[in-house]
Design brief:
Helices cover 79% and strands 0% of the residues. It contains six helices and no strands. Keywords: Membrane, Transmembrane, Transmembrane helix. The chain crosses the membrane at residues 12-44, 56-89.
Length: 126
């Protein structure tokens, strides 16, 4: 199924806008990851230790990590935009494969000829 030129242009513009959102929220994504990593590390150490002062320290460190992660909540928009870019890219790649031509030749037993089917898929995909 061929897309019209107008639809292709709109999809390219939407892809560029999503790419701009991903690049713009990249520092927030890094901050979210570091905050979550710090909180995870502190909570795991909090559970392992038996010293009261160490528990207080690791509890404060976990609170700082959680606060740092929550302050970078805008990263969720970047993650959603990256997911939309990935889904759009995969749909664009799969539209180039004609499914009717790809599965035109049917075999009687599909499990016996799995390797041949896989080679057909690889050959027709690119």
């Amino acid at each position: 199924m061929k897309q019209s030129k107008g639809k292709q242009v709109l999809m390219a513009l939407a892809g560029l806008a999503l790419l701009a959102v991903v690049i713009g929220t990249l520092p927030h994504m890094i901050g979210l990851g570091l905050g979550a990593l710090l909180a995870f590390y502190a909570i795991s150490k909090f559970i392992q230790t038996s010293n009261v002062f160490a528990k207080i320290g690791f509890g404060l460190l976990a609170a700082i990590g959680i606060g740092f992660a929550l302050s970078n909540i805008w990263a969720v928009l970047g993650i959603a935009a990256a997911l939309a870019l990935y889904i759009g890219y995969m749909r664009m790649k799969m539209q180039r494969v004609d499914l009717n031509q790809l599965f035109a030749r049917r075999r009687k037993t599909s499990s016996a000829h799995f390797e041949a089917d896989w080679k057909d898929l690889d050959k027709n995909r690119y």
